Each structure stands twice: as C-alpha cells, then as structure tokens.
Amino acid sequence: MRILVTGGKGMLGRTLCRAWKKHEVIAAGRAEADITDAAGFDRLVGELRPDAVVHCAAFTAVDRCETESEAAYRVNAAGTGNVAAACRRHEVRLIAISTDYVFGGELDRPCHEFDTPIPGTVYGRSKFAGEELIRQTCPDHVIARTSWLYGAGGPSFVHTMMALADGSRPELKVVADQFGNPTGADALAGHLAILLEHPELSGTWHLTCEGEASWYEFACEIFRLAGKKQKVTPCATAEFPRPARRPANSRLDKMMLRLHHLPPMPEWRQVLAEFMQSEFSL
C-alpha cells in the first residue's frame, strides 16, 4: 500500500516509517503537507494517490492550546476537516489519531469507545471537533484514540524522566493522582496496521497498552528498568498547577478490539521494558 502520513516527521510518524516496511510510507511534515491549506492538501492527495492517509499532524502543546485556542482549532479541527474532505473526494481510507483528552477524566473507570466525550480543555475540545468533522465528512475512516504515548527519539515522558535523572537532583516529585495507560509507539503501530489493512473495520477505536499506572508509578518503573537510584516522591496534581487541567482518569478501555475479536494490545510494562532496552542500550 502507498500511505501518506501527515505529521510524518513526529515521533509516531517516524515509528510508522520504521515499522511498516512492507508498505510505501510517505512521511510528510508541514512543509510538504500543510493540513490548514485545504486546496493545497487536496491537490497533494490527488497527486500522490495514496491508498490511505494516516493523520498524525496536530497541535499537541496542551497548555499553549489554552492561550492559542484559535491556532488549536485551526489545526486540530479545521485542518482535520480538510484531511477528511480530501480523503472523501479522492476515495482514500483515513486513519486519524486522536486522544484521551476528548474525555474530561471524571469517570471512575476506563472510558470505552461508546462513552460520550466531554472534553475539559481547549486541546480536547479541538481534537473532538476534528473527530466530528471526520465522522460527518469521510465515511471510510478509523479514529484511533491513544494516550501517554512514547517512542524512539521522543519527546516523551520517558525521555524527560531519563534526562532529569542525571544525578543532579536528590528528589523528583511526580504526580500520583492521574492515571492512564502508558503506550509505546511501536505497539500502537502494530494495531494501526491491523485496522489499516482491514477495510471492513471502521469507526472509533481505543488503542492503548493494557494495564494502568499513575505518572508516579510510570516514573518508578522507568528508573527501575534503567537501574537508576533516583529518589521519586509522589505528589498531587494541585502541587503543579498548569494552564490546562490534566484529566485524573486517562484510562481507555479497548471495547472495540474485544467486540471484533482482535488481539489485545500488549501489557504496558512489557512494552516499556523492550523500549528501554533498545532506546537507552540497557
């Protein structure tokens, strides 16, 4: 298959290029594929004639979205709508990457694909607006929500923790009252490939690794695997106020995988251990 990846120079885009060797993957950054230019993007899709577009491009600076809301909607909503319109016009399958932030984080259980999104941030609202434009515009689509993503080269929480544990800080405080599913980009790429290669599968899917952790537990596991003696102290979200409210519950339930009898995502600790070994030569 010939696959056009928007945001192709980012962490997930680079992972897809490396993981999908049997396909022709065209990784397009903003210079090659500006999704905010509707006519230009439509023209690009018409010229390349891909079998599928994997839409990774997004304004993901969560705090900046709060102060630059118009820019967030320009990229995450209108830009995504442009991608969906081009895919519909040229009859191209669309795989779009979305986020746990479409939920407000208030539920006391993992959110499944049939729960009603109630985003609590500009980032979440703009991403959900993009999802809705896809549903309205492009029938042949998959929306894949993920969270707490890390991958080769970063940037990610894993890379940040490893950089902070340089021996200069006697203690690191890490939030212990936010919970989610740490997810490796390679694991995500594997399940995206399943959805990509099965045109009968469509709709909204949750793709995060199995198991859950707090940011504190995630950090402790990173340091354990790295063999670092860094002291980590759990703290509350209130100790680190940010412009955008972080969801207390980012856990995603993979109901669609179960309903379609597809393989489950791998367990997060196993994926992290493999990543740490390859990324940091442990």
Automatic annotation (TrEMBL):
Pfam families: RmlD_sub_bind. It is an enzyme of class 1 (oxidoreductase). Keywords: NADP, Oxidoreductase. Its EC number is 1.1.1.133. GO terms for molecular function: dTDP-4-dehydrorhamnose reductase activity. One of its GO terms (biological process) is dTDP-rhamnose biosynthetic process. InterPro entries: dTDP_dehydrorham_reduct (IPR005913), NAD(P)-bd_dom_sf (IPR036291), RmlD-like-bd (IPR029903). SUPFAM superfamilies: NAD(P)-binding Rossmann-fold domains. It comes from the Bacteria. Pathway: Carbohydrate biosynthesis; dTDP-L-rhamnose biosynthesis. Residues 1-278 form the RmlD-like substrate binding domain. The keyword NADP applies. It catalyses: dTDP-beta-L-rhamnose + NADP(+) = dTDP-4-dehydro-beta-L-rhamnose + NADPH + H(+). GO terms for cellular component: cytosol. Belongs to the dTDP-4-dehydrorhamnose reductase family. Catalyzes the reduction of dTDP-6-deoxy-L-lyxo-4-hexulose to yield dTDP-L-rhamnose. This is dTDP-4-dehydrorhamnose reductase.
